[in-house]
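fyi for ur records
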Amino acid sequence: MSECYEYVPHRLLRRRVRDIASGVEGVLMAVINENVSDTGIERWMELAYIRGASGREFTTAVTNVEPA
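which gave:
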């Protein structure tokens, strides 16, 4: 996998959000356009990094993020 990525601005950064896929709430820490492929063919995706109540961050597709 390539180590290429770029930070993407988002209107909900540093705000409380909900991941609609899991229902988990937390603070949106970053949105990153990242190559998620583990093969030679690049596959870019915007990932949202959310910090949950436990302090651990998890990722989800940015389209799964909504205000909490």
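The chain has no helices and six strands. thats all i got for now
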